[in-house]
Structures are given as C-alpha cells and as structure tokens.
Design a protein that fits this description.
By secondary structure, the protein is mainly alpha-helical. Helix 4 (56-70) packs across helix 5, helix 5 (77-95) packs antiparallel against helix 9 (174-187) and helix 7 (123-137) crosses helix 8 (147-167). 69% of the residues lie in helices and 0% in strands. The protein starts with a helix and ends with a helix. The protein has two domains: 1-51, Orthogonal Bundle (Arc Repressor Mutant, subunit A); 52-187, Tetracycline Repressor, domain 2 (Orthogonal Bundle), CATH 1.10.357. The protein has nine helices and no strands. The model has no long low-confidence stretch (mean pLDDT 88).
Length: 190
C-alpha cells in the first residue's frame, strides 16, 4: 500500500466520524480502527487530532479530481466554474458539519506553516487555472484580468461564502446561495 493511500484512509475515516458523531466525540483510536491503520501510521501523518481540520482541503481536492473526470467537456468555462462550486458546496452541506468547516478556516488563520487552502499546488488551483485559461482563450474574460487575478478572486469568493455560512451556523443553503451569487460575481470578469 502506498503512503498516500494510508493517509487518505485516515483522513476519510476521520471526516466520516467527525460528521457522524462530532469532532469532540471522535477519538484517535476510533479513527485508527475505522481507517484500518495503526496509531503509528496516524502519528506519522498527524501530530494529533487537532491537525486534522487542515486535512479537509485534501478531501475537497479528491472531490475536484472526481468532478474533473465527470464534468461535461461541452460546458463553457463559466458553466464549469459554477458546476464545480455547486458540487463542492453540496458536498459540504451534506458531509461536513459547520463546526468542522469552522475549524478548518480557523486553522488557516492561526497556522504559520500549513495554509493548505492557499497551496497553489492543490488540484483545486490547477483546475481553476486550466478553466480560466480556457475562458481567456475563448475570449470570455476581459483581457485586463490575468489568470491569477481570476483564480484568486474566485477562490476568495468561495472562502468568503464558506466563512459566512459558518458565521451563520449553516442557517441557509450554501449551495443555493452561491448558485444565486456566483454567476453575477463571474460577470465582473467577462
């Protein structure tokens, strides 16, 4: 088994348990058992349970890899961005508690080293850049905006919506609200 498979199993098991029974009620022993790994493996990848909130971006990237494979290539770049956003936000609503997403966002603010949400090497940013370049090549985006400008603005828009959803204790549908706002936001770049 590859190392990345072991880490993925730990992360997936942890997030399933966090969603079912809450972060505070989940133990490392339960994560190890659910992942079919060992405590040694757990501690090889994570200093402790508090290191796991930052791994949520890993699950997001798994979702983006899945979406990239299933996304209709006939969609316009704008439609692709809206599709990706809707699918991720539906996943968040259905599998990630507000508490856990809040912990991820908070971990990014206080960590001086692991700012996984900003990692330009993530699948998320690679996919956003490819779609943005496609839009630029098709003349959909205004020329004064660079690939980096559009990618950064889109990512900030998504993080802002997730942050507000957490502040509002998940009192509204994240995917529905984003579905209403994102097309208008993207028009600023067209």
């Amino acid at each position: 088994m590859k190392k990345s498979d072991t880490k993925a199993r730990i992360v997936n098991a942890a997030w399933q348990l966090f969603y079912k029974q809450g972060y505070e009620n989940t133990t490392i022993d339960e994560i190890v058992e659910a992942s079919g790994t060992s405590k040694g493996s757990f501690y090889h990848y994570f200093e402790g349970k508090d290191a796991l909130p930052a791994s949520l971006s890993y699950l997001f990237d798994e979702k983006y890899e899945e979406l990239e494979k299933t996304m209709d290539p006939g969609l316009s770049p704008i439609e692709k961005l809206v599709f990706m956003n809707q699918e991720l936000f539906l996943m968040i609503e259905n599998t990630v508690s507000v508490d856990i997403l809040s912990r991820l966002l908070a971990s990014q603010l206080v960590s001086s080293s692991d700012r996984s949400l900003l990692d330009a090497g993530r699948t998320y940013y690679k996919l956003l850049r490819r779609i943005t370049i496609e839009g630029q090549e098709q003349g959909l985006f205004r020329k004064e905006f660079t690939t980096n400008d559009i990618t950064k603005a889109y990512a900030m828009f998504e993080r802002a919506l997730m942050y507000d959803w957490c502040l509002s204790s998940g009192s509204y549908s994240l995917s529905q609200y984003s579905g209403e706002l994102l097309p208008a936001f993207l028009k600023n770049f067209c």
